[in-house]
Amino acid sequence: MLVIRAKNYEELSRKAAKYIANQVELKPNSVLGLATGSTPVGTYKELIRYCQEEGLSFRKIRTVNLDEYYGLRPDHEQSYRHFMDHNLFDHIDILKENTHVPDGLTQDPCAFGEAYDEMISVLGGIDLQLLGIGSNGHIAFNEPNQHFVAPTHLVKLSENTLEDNARFFDSIDEVPPQAITMGMRSIMRARRILILASGVNKAEAVKGMLEGEIDPMLPASILQLHPDVVLIADNEALSLCALE
Ligand code: PGA
């Protein structure tokens, strides 16, 4: 894993956006795997700037998102479909029909998961997957578990994740307890992975991912097995690591 240090969140966002913009410029019909959460918001802002001020076009780009809360309608203001529209898609020249977010209302999560993974294969697989990392080491909503789960699936969110995400809702009781998440197979099949980490609350998870054993109790550690992962992290997120 290549580790790129940023001095703060702003620098992290600029570097991440540059990495993604290069992918879009070099392969304009790329399939991008996209993430939600606080961390990529600055990256998306910068990508909007590339599009609006520097003429970077997303017209042929296809996107697949990592996850969606189970039971939230796409127009709910905390749904990840809403997040993506609001923070990126509505401000760039991407065609909405080329953007995919898991269906949080599916009645049959198993069949949906199979169809979502198949859709990713039919698109040609993910060229560049953007990831955040949870303070418990989750990637997408693959929570600490006894084993890694391969397909896109319905997952019960951990207490830790409910607490972390309560800040987006009026109270913790309103955080949906389940989500549909891409599993490890589609993530690990991505040709390139870019993972972002910002803030001291990510430091332990980042240390575990880089220096620990590969362990499904720290899901991001599976990335040690992927041949092309770049971590862009700020000083705080790297504060427990024994890097140079
Ligand atoms: P955050 O979430 O960017 O809001 O910290 C990251 C994650 O849970 O993957």
Share in helix: 25-40%
User: Widest sheet: strand order?
Assistant: 1-10-9-6-2-3-5
Cα separation of the termini: 15 Å
The CATH topology comes to Rossmann fold
Radius of gyration, whole Å: 17 Å
The average pLDDT value, as a whole number, equals: 97
Bound chemical compounds? 2-phosphoglycolic acid
Architecture in CATH?
A: 3-Layer(aba) Sandwich
Order of helices and strands: EHEHEEHEHEEHEHEHE
Percent of sequence in beta strands:
15-25%
Write a structural description.
The chain is α/β, with parallel strands linked by helices and 244 residues long. The chain has a single domain (2-234), classed as Rossmann fold, CATH 3.40.50. It contains seven helices and ten strands. The protein has a seven-stranded parallel beta sheet with strand order 1-10-9-6-2-3-5, covered by helices on one side. A three-stranded antiparallel beta sheet has the order 4-8-7. The longest helix has 18 residues, at 9-26. The radius of gyration is 17 Å and the shape is globular. 2-phosphoglycolic acid (PGA) is lined by residues 37-39, 132-134. Residues 37-39, 132-134 line the site of 2-phosphoglycolic acid.
What is shown here, in short?
The chain is an alpha/beta fold and 244 residues long.
What's the SSE blueprint?
Layout: E1 2-6, H1 9-26, E2 31-34, H2 41-54, E3 62-65, E4 67-69, H3 80-87, E5 99-100, H4 109-123, E6 128-131, E7 153-156, H5 159-165, E8 178-181, H6 184-189, E9 192-197, H7 203-211, E10 229-234
Parallel strand pairs: 1-10, 2-3, 2-6, 3-5, 6-9, 9-10
Antiparallel strand pairs: 4-8, 7-8
Helix pairs in contact: 1-2
The site of 2-phosphoglycolic acid (PGA) has 6 residues, from loops.
